[in-house]
Specification:
single chain, mainly alpha, 16 helices
Amino acid sequence: MDPTLNTLAGRGHDLRINLLLGMANWFVFLDHIPNNAVNLVTLRNYGFSGATDVFVFVAGYAVALIYGAMMLERGFVITTTRIFKRVGQLYVAYVVLFVVYVDAIGNVAARYAATSLFDEYNVTGIVDHPTRTLMHGLLLQARPLNLDGLQLFIVLMALFPPALWAVLRRPHLTLAASLGLYLAARQFDWGLPSFPAGRWDFNPFCWQLLFLLGAWFAVKGRELVAPLYGWPALRVAAVAYLMLALVIALPKHFPELGGIIPGLWPLSLDSKENLAPHRLLHFLALAFVFTSLVPRDWPALHAVALRPVIKCGEEWLAAFCAGVFLSFAAHFILITGPDSLAMQIAVSAAGLAAMTLVAAYVSWSKQQDRIRVMGAEA
């Protein structure tokens, strides 16, 4: 057996993948509810990186495991068709989500005279230029709030087949090429335009590095990184950097600390578009500490308390789509009703519960389809 195939096959069924994808989904939902005290618990408040960083890296790792083994067994052409099939599913989900989401925002804004929602959710073009906005939306160029992460993932997946082929054969050279593209995009200010103005919030030329880094780690990086866990000094350095990022980030999200914690480093915390180096380093430090503390066989991964978030990781697309609508509904409830702390907690908890129910139903439905197919074959 190909040693790489054996390596990829041996890394399947890692519950940490679904745990992290589920946590990213939950954090994205909470972050998408403006002026919500509950989103103070999410990752973005305590350092430079956030839920999107976690999702992109873990997704790169997961798709390399799935499609890497397929490419080694069945070849480039078949694997590419399977990847494009998945891209098609993602694109259909995006189109339905985009059309229904924008229509829902428009109807709510018109019915309740809440015209500020058009600006807040970046859909003003639907009023002035509905046809053009729809066309640009189909081309992934419109920027309705909260859909940018799915747009990024569609592009990364569509370009993944040649990158996967390369990373399976020359993993280090492929990662070096990815790093070169990242540096060139930052140096020459490459980016993708959006409609009606501006650029993508997540620049694919830069964020591809995190995605490819996840794929590289799945194929080859784990063996190279494993000895680093035996270096206590590296662990101390990672924790120290996370603490430094925490000190720098806290005054931004907790203004009352501004007079207590002085600005220590002239870094912009708004480093999302081009994946700033200090943001990337923060995520790597976080990943190093997490994998040090949470091994693959960690017993708590099977705890009942973690099943909801793991289920939202297993069915991340359904949970994400539900979360987009639920975050809008939660925001609307808060701006039209009592915007109290109790209400913020209530709508956040209800949204997370609804996301989990959607993910559980989708999982159950797939299982019933598999049982029916197996019964038919028997």
